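[step 3/7] fold_predict: job queued, chain A
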Amino acid sequence: MNHPPDPHRAPVAPGVAVVGRANIDITVRIPQRPVPGRTTFASSAATTTPGGKSLNQALAAARTGIHTSLISNAGDDHWGALLHQALTDAAVDVSGFYLVPSGSTGIAVVEIDSDGENHIILARAPESELTGDQVHDRLTRLSAPVVVTQLDLRPDAVNAVLRHHRADTLIGNLVPHPTLGAAALAPLDLFVSNQTEAAAILGHHHTDPADAAHELRELGPRAAVVTAGPAGAAYSHPTGTALVPTPHVNAVNTSGAGDTFLGTLAARLAYHTPLPEAVAAAVAAATTHVRTPAASYRSRT
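[step 4/7] structure written:
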């Protein structure tokens, strides 16, 4: 982050490109999680909305007013058309969003319990997963100062981002694909995860997210951020490590809160906001998200 400017490179307007998955979310609110052999009745009718971590992050970045692009695939089906329309309505650049002929769109089943916590099952569509060639081709057409990528994509897709991006700031999130491992963090300017993901990478859990962020940074990225739900988010960068707390709120929907955090964070960094202030802005956006029911929040996109 904050690399010295290249005097031979033309100025690039602030912008964010997100590389990863887009899918349909089928969300049900439940009084408690099902137990074996018993049926749990939902508290309300199921909702069907655009989703997927990268799509959610792109929508969150676009809400800040910054130019945002999404590099992703979906099936050339009813659900894919719905995703395309949602992105277009939100003014997200869809030049890198392709509908795969004869392909299907991934679906996530999202359960939200009475405490607002979410449990997600993702049914991926293999024919719609990004390939390395697709990522390379689409990234080279964009000039975004900030690129955000899921690290759990196919290894060739992740490697294409790492090798061919032209961003000033490269952000990675999620647990890397098993064949890549923690080595995928080293080329990053910033790695962002939640506490569960951090523990999966580090092999142990830190009660203090600041400790987790500091240890993640020792794996190679220039900076690391660990989100900690109601506790806020911690960051570690060359000039220090700290926790940005969040005010106590009544959470009604935590699904997508981390994506709202990351999309907002990426947008602030594209405007050259220092990391501590950018994390604070992202915490504020995620706090607003968890206080807002899912259907009404996503209708604003």
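[step 5/7] annotate
DSSP finds nine helices and 13 strands in the chain.
The two ends are 29 Å apart (CA to CA).
exit 0
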